[in-house]
Amino acid sequence: MTSSILLPDTKEYRKAHKQYLKATKNRPKDIDHDWTPFRAAEKKFKARFPPPDLSSVLDLACLRDNSQLGYWKGSPDAVEFVQIPLKTEDGRKAYTIPQIPGTPHLFADQPKFKHPPGLIVLPSFVSEQKQRDLVKWSLAEHAKQPNDTNLDIHYVLPKEGLWNAWLKARDNPEQDALVLPKALVSEVVEKPSSGPRQLVNNEPASPETFDTISTTPKPPPPPSSTIQPTPVSSLIYKMRWANIGWFYHWGTKQYDFSKGPGTIDDELRSVCHEAVRSVQWKDVHGPSSADWGPNGPDWETWDETYECDAGIVNFYQEKDTLMAHVDRSEVCATSPLVSISLGNAAVFLIGSLTRDTEPIPILLRSGDAVIMSGPSCRRAYHGVPRILEGSLPPHLKSSAFEDDALAREWQPYEEYLSTTRINVNVRQVFPKGFDPFAKRSP
Ligand SMILES: O=C(O)CCC(=O)C(=O)O
Ligand SMILES: [Fe+2]
Predict the structure, then answer these.
(1) What residues sit around ligand 2, an ion, with C-beta below 5 angstroms?
(2) pTM of the model
(3) What is the number of the ligand closest to the CA of 241?
(4) What residues of the chain score a pLDDT lower than 70?
(5) Which residues form a coiled coil (predicted)?
(6) How does pLDDT run across 123-166, given as a tens digit for each residue?
(7) Domains, the chain, ranges and CATH?
C-alpha cells in the first residue's frame, strides 16, 4: 500500500484530470446550492482532484522552521489567532482563536464569522518519543478486548488483538489466518438493508437527562450477515476506532454505564492532564460572556476537577473522513476534550453550534494537541474531511532509529502509519464528584 501525492506536470496528474473532466461533465451547475457552509468546506478539502489548495488552512507549524514540513503546507496567516502563555516554560506554545472583540459569542445576524471561544491548539505538544509510545499503545496494547473496536461487532477477532496477530502474520505469511464473521456464530444477525443509514439524533447529555440515558436499553449491535472471512493482513486496514474508558454505545450514541468505567492508560492520562494544567484558562475564558449554565463557569477549578474518563482512538486511512458532528454524550458539557494527532497530517474543521457557520480549517500534524473547552466550543460542529497523504514525519520512520534492532521493530509501525492517521480523543463524561450509581430522587 503506497501513498502518492498528485503532482502537477506528471502522467498521473494528467490521467486524474481526464477522469475528473469525464466524471463532472454532466454535473449540474448548482450542485452546491443547498450545501451548508460546513458541507461546502468538507467538499472542498475532500476533493481528490484537483488536490485542495491549503492556503486558507491555518498551519501553525509554519511559524517554526518549515523546511521539514513536506509537500502539504497551510498558511500561518490564514486565520486570526493569538498566542497564549503556557505555564510550562519549555518552549512549547499554545494558540487560541479569539472571539470577535466586543461581541457576544454567538450571533444570529452574522453566523458566518462566529466561532466559539475555548479552542486551543498546542502544536508539537507531544514529544517525538511519546508519539511513538502512543502509536504503539494504540495498536498493540489498546485496540483489543476488553476495549471494543468497530471490528468486534462483526468479526471474531484474535484474543491477542488484531495488531499482534498481524505482527506474527507479517513475519510468517502462513499465519495470516482468516478472521471469521461473527454472524457464523451468532443467532442475531443484521438484516441486509438497501436504504440509507439511519441517523441517530441523540439528546445532549446532562445531569438532568442522566437517569433517562442510563436506563435506555442498549442492545448489542447485530453482526452483519454479508461479511466474508477476511485475512488479518487486510482487516488491520479496516480498523476504524477503539473505545477508551466508559463504553460508548453507537446505536443510541450514549454511554453504556452498565459495563463499568473501563480504564485510562497512565501515560495517556498524564499527557491530557499536562495539556489541561499547562493552559492559563483565564486567558481563554476570562474575557468571554458565554452562558455556562446555572452553576456558572467552572474553568477556574479545572486544575483540580479535570479528570478524563472516556474517549476513542480513531484510525483513519487516507480516504477516510469524519463528517461534521457534535460530541454531546458527555454529562460534563464544558470540561476540556483533549485530542492528540499521530501519524499523517489532516485538515480539521471547527465551526459553531450550527452547520451554518463557515468552519475554520486547521492543519493538524503528528504530536499536535487540540483542546475543545467551554459551553460553546465543546458543543461546536467539527470534523476531519481530509487526511493528507504522504505526510508521515521523519521521526515516525524507522530510519530515525540509530539502533538496528529498534529500527526493525518500528518497521511494521512505519508501514502501517505510511497510510494512516491516528487521533486519540479523550473526554470527561462526569463532573468531579458526580456519582453515576447514586440513587436520585425521581
Ligand atoms: O480526528 C480528529 O481530529 C477528531 C476526532 C473527533 O472529533 C472525535 O473522535 O469525535
Ligand atoms: Fe468529535
Answers:
(1) 327
(2) 0.92
(3) 1
(4) 1-3, 99-115, 186-200, 439-442
(5) none
(6) 999 999 999 999 999 999 999 999 999 999 999 999 999 999 99
(7) 30-442 (2.60.120.590)
